[in-house]
Amino acid sequence: MASTVSFSPTNVQMLQGRSGRGHSAFGSCFAVPRAGPRLRSTAVRVSSEQEAAAAVRAPSGRTIEECEADAVAGKFPAPPPLVRPKAPEGTPEIRPLDMTKRPRRNRKSPALRAAFQETSISPANFVLPLFIHEGEDDAPIGAMPGCYRLGWRHGLLDEVYKARDVGVNSFVLFPKVPDALKTPTGDEAYNDNGLVPRTIRLLKDKFPDIVIYTDVALDPYSSDGHDGIVREDGVIMNDETVYQLCKQAVSQARAGADVVSPSDMMDGRVGALRAALDAEGFHDVSIMSYTAKYASSFYGPFREALDSNPRFGDKKT
């Protein structure tokens, strides 16, 4: 048991201690004494389990027991002198800048930077892509060695289990739709019993607390391989495509999606999706919009995984 001794020092602002296995290292870590009301304080002596720590010394070089004894007696050392480090020879002597905001003070030590940093990346910040298909078993993706289109019976659930073990709880679904279900208008995109809605329901049943993102675009469902409905002259029809995308997003939300992610790049689709979701009561479903995309060859393996390469032209428009 730890024993306590009461004392009543005067003119003491406060006692500051350095944590040390359950005891306070009083010593030269005292605050600067100042005039003020008489305070009633209590010093806690280390317990028998902590006797081995008695030899630990405070920054002043004195033992913890010596520091505690001074605290009980009301003896407080003078604050150490403020020593200004020497600047290199030739440094100009100037008046300090007249400013009260100096952000560097919050970056002066690793502990402060960790406390005040705006961004801290952890596994919980990542979203794991899951390529899915209608089959029960996993199928390798030729252009992405080591990656698979996951079957719903084994691979899909196993992948989510493994990700959750390392702290990843967010997933985005990318489907490979059978050619027989693809049409020029991508109607399969909003089939409530399609591959994506069924996968969402399966995952939410097994893992209710995970966050599911969905891809909103017509290219996996289009027989033309484009992100929108293609007119006979090769022009992508913007507004008609947005109408289809709204139905797709609502279908995904109805299945349990937490975030819909339009990657189609149609004009006005984000506002239209928000209005469509709200009209159906899905006010809590978020939208993660793609603000910029590039006509890059790096999309090649991804499009092979989804079998969504354009049948003609490119996707630069």
UniProtKB/TrEMBL annotation:
GO terms for cellular component: cytosol. Keywords: Allosteric enzyme, Chlorophyll biosynthesis, Heme biosynthesis, Lyase, Porphyrin biosynthesis. GO terms for biological process: chlorophyll biosynthetic process; heme biosynthetic process. Residues 1-20, 75-111 are annotated as: Disordered. SUPFAM superfamilies: Aldolase. Residues 1-16 have a biased composition (Polar residues). Signal peptide: none annotated. InterPro entries: ALAD, Aldolase_TIM. It comes from the Eukaryota. GO terms for molecular function: porphobilinogen synthase activity; zinc ion binding. Catalyzes an early step in the biosynthesis of tetrapyrroles. Binds two molecules of 5-aminolevulinate per subunit, each at a distinct site, and catalyzes their condensation to form porphobilinogen. Belongs to the ALAD family. This is porphobilinogen synthase. It comes from Panicum virgatum (Blackwell switchgrass). The lineage of its organism: Eukaryota, Viridiplantae, Streptophyta, Embryophyta, Tracheophyta.
